[in-house]
Design a protein that fits this description.
The chain is an alpha+beta fold. 49% of the residues lie in helices and 18% in strands. It is globular. It starts with 9 loop residues before the first strand and ends with a helix.
Length: 180
């Protein structure tokens, strides 16, 4: 299903803020999470542990607040989920920014709206988002980030898709060269 979505970044996430799977454009959008020594696939860890998140999210404060409010909502929905409890514990121990937000007890539904990203390759992207719960996979949701038709962000997504295709070819070629 993800690969059928070609004009917008899309990913499946779980109730622990992990990216479980993504289409090519989804991986490209979040490529900063996958690069460097940390190689994170978790939104919360990226926001609170990786300094690149301050550049990636133009409004880092908003991103951090929303992330914690969603995590708190999911902790309430799945109170016995050890993975959520472990993540909250790790974030609480390692991040004062997280602790302060967690103590505020804010809860948020996060199903549609707009977000801004600053991608290191294509610049600022203003994208809408739609989140759909996956009924047959409790605790998982599909998020799609389309751009407004005719906008500079739509052009940015086309550039991102081109870059992602080039990166995929380079990674495959590198993988082949290291096998021989």
């Amino acid at each position: 299903m993800l690969d059928a979505i070609t004009g917008a970044p899309a990913f499946v996430g779980n109730n622990r803020m992990d990216i479980v799977a993504a289409n090519q454009l989804g991986y490209a959008l979040y490529s900063d999470m996958y690069r460097g020594t940390a190689r994170l696939t978790n939104h919360s860890r990226f926001i609170f542990f990786d300094p690149r998140a301050y550049d990636f999210y133009p409004d880092w404060e908003r991103a951090a607040n929303v992330n914690v409010a969603i995590l708190r909502r999911d902790a309430g929905r799945w109170p016995h989920d050890k993975g959520i409890a472990d993540l909250v514990g790790e974030l609480s121990v390692r991040s004062e920014e997280f602790r302060a937000r967690w103590a505020a007890h804010n809860v948020r539904r996060h199903y549609s709206g707009a977000k801004s990203f600053h991608h290191s390759v294509v610049g600022t992207l203003e994208l809408n988002y739609q989140v759909m719960e996956l009924e047959d996979a409790p605790g998982h949701s599909l998020t799609v980030y389309p751009a407004v038709s005719g906008s500079s962000s739509e052009e940015g997504l086309r550039l991102l898709a081109s870059w992602a295709a080039t990166e995929a070819i380079a990674e495959k070629a590198q993988g082949l060269s290291t096998r021989h």
